[in-house]
Amino acid sequence: MEEIAIFYSLIKDLCGGRVYPDLIPVQNNAADPAMWPAMRYSVISGQVEATNCYQAFNPRVQVDIYANTPQERAHCVQEAMDLIQDSEEIDCQLKTAPFFSYDIDRKKYQATFDYLIN
Q: E-assigned strands of the chain?
């Protein structure tokens, strides 16, 4: 999907370049603060286009950000949302406002939000 490649090209330098599709690599040791913040993006669904071809759809992409502190998390979320919103390369509509939580396994502060790519 070309839209996902464009989406990645926008966000690839965020979080110190630690932006990954689908999962955070095991190399990102939770105990090593230098491996964070990190971002994961995944296609979670999509909106089917009004065609007779059911395979055509606009992807919905979830973004998860993991950070060492709540302040770092908030900064990363704002940076990502500003960059995506201001992009002229791709049309993204925020579908879910950021949800903040704490990932007990990673011992990191997490934010989750998603976009529909038109």
A: 19-21, 38-48, 57-67, 92-103, 108-117
37 upstream amide cis, omega within 30 of 0: yes
User: How are beta strands 38-48 and 108-117 bridged, if at all?
Assistant: unpaired
Q: pLDDT (tens digit, 9 = 90+) per residue, 25-73? A: 888 887 888 899 999 999 987 666 666 656 667 899 999 999 999 999 9
User: Distance (Å, rounded) from C-alpha 23 to C-alpha 27?
Assistant: 11
DSSP class of 86: T
Q: Structural domain boundaries of the chain? A: 2-58+67-97
Helical H segments across 12-69, by residue range: none
When the pLDDT of each residue in the chain is averaged and rounded to a whole number, the result is 90
Main-chain dihedrals φ then ψ at residue 79, nearest 5 degrees: -60, -45
